[in-house]
Structures are given as C-alpha cells and as structure tokens.
Design brief:
- Helices cover 28% and strands 35% of the residues.
- Strands 1, 2, 3, 4, 5, 6, 7, 8, 9 and 10 form a 10-stranded antiparallel sheet that branches.
- The protein has 5 helices and 10 strands; from the N terminus they run αββββαββαααββββ.
- The chain has a single domain, classed as Electron Transport, Fmn-binding Protein, Chain A (Pnp Oxidase, Chain A, Roll), CATH 2.30.110.
- The longest helix has 14 residues.
- Helix 4 crosses helix 5.
- A hairpin with a 4-residue loop joins strand 5 and strand 6.
C-alpha cells in the first residue's frame, strides 16, 4: 500500500515526495522533529541517511526508535510510521554514499552537522580542504555517516474525507517479523 501511495505522490507532488518528518526524542525526553528524505524502503523497513554525530543521529542512536510522517498535500493523504531503528550495513551505506553527487559527498566530510558554525567562510574553507583532499576518483564514506532503518511496528494510512470523516487504517505488530493486524479507526 505504501509503495502505491508513494508512486502516486511521485506523480502529483510539486517537490520531493520522499520528504518525511522524522521524530526522535532527545536526552531530556523532549520530542524533536525535522524533515529528512526517505532513500529506500522494503519489507525490512524505511531507510534514511545522516551524520551519526548530528543531533538526529545522536538521538536515534540513544533511543533506538523513531517515527516518520509523510504528508502528501496534493493527494490529501499521510502515512505515519513508528518503530525500532537499526543501522544499515556498511555495504548498503557505501553503495548509497557512492550514488550521491560529488558535492554532497564532500559536504558529508566538511560539515560538523548540528554543531555551532563560527561563519559561513569556515564551512567553505572545510569544503575547499576536502575538495583538495579528494580531487579525483572515489570519496570514501566517513565512518560517522551512515543510514538508519526504521522497522515499523505501526503504520497508519490516513486519507482525507468529506466533512472531516477521514479514512484511517492502522497496521500493527508487536515486533518485526510478526504478522500485521489491521484496524480501522474513527477519524
């Protein structure tokens, strides 16, 4: 069902249909949400990539769980996903990293994501440093940069309905690998 909805969103959304709000929890237990891009999904889960030293990386590594919310306004639909998180294997992370634009790979080395930046010039200087370090050929993936996979235990498909009588279908399971239960919720 998710694949069908994403395919429809890919045709109707003006901007990136893989944009999703990622929710985590910080060390004080406060929720934190930001947009990320979904890079892969399959029966094992939903994958996004980040710097493990970033705020989101630290929060996901600490809590080992997260949630996503896709909202496709043009379709008047959303999908919510919740579950435990694991790190993708090195081969998967390396393959995705190698597929990124060269500037994005340099940026992964240059950016101390989520940490104070004294000036834009300081960032540009770091970009120049890594551009010089990797002038041609492969750019290796930094050890602190990889992907996370949310293995869902909860998926909600929401579709807008007339007079706010929305359609909500919830799929749940206790742990990864178990069978899903399907329940319809009141709007």
């Amino acid at each position: 069902m998710f694949g069908d909805w994403l395919a429809e969103a890919s045709e109707s959304e003006i901007n990136d249909p893989t944009a999703t709000a990622l929710a985590t929890v910080d060390e004080d237990g406060l929720p934190n949400v930001r947009m990320v891009l979904l890079k892969d999904y399959d029966e094992k889960g939903f994958v996004f990539y980040t710097n493990f030293e970033s705020q989101k990386g630290v929060e996901v590594l600490s809590a080992k769980k997260a949630a996503m919310c896709f909202h496709w306004k043009s379709l008047r639909r959303q999908v919510r996903i919740r579950g435990p998180v694991s790190i993708v294997d090195d081969a998967e992370a390396d393959a995705y990293f190698a597929s990124r634009a060269r500037g994005s790979r340099i940026g992964a080395w240059a950016s101390k994501q989520s940490r104070p930046l004294e000036s834009r010039f300081a960032l540009e200087k770091k970009v120049a440093k890594y551009t010089a370090k990797y002038p041609l050929g492969d750019i290796p993936r930094p050890s602190y940069w990889s992907g996370f996979r949310i293995s869902p235990v909860y998926i909600e498909f929401w579709k807008d309905g007339a007079f706010r009588l929305h359609d909500r279908i919830i799929f749940r399971r206790e742990t990864e690998g178990e069978d899903w239960t399907k329940t319809r919720f009141y709007p």
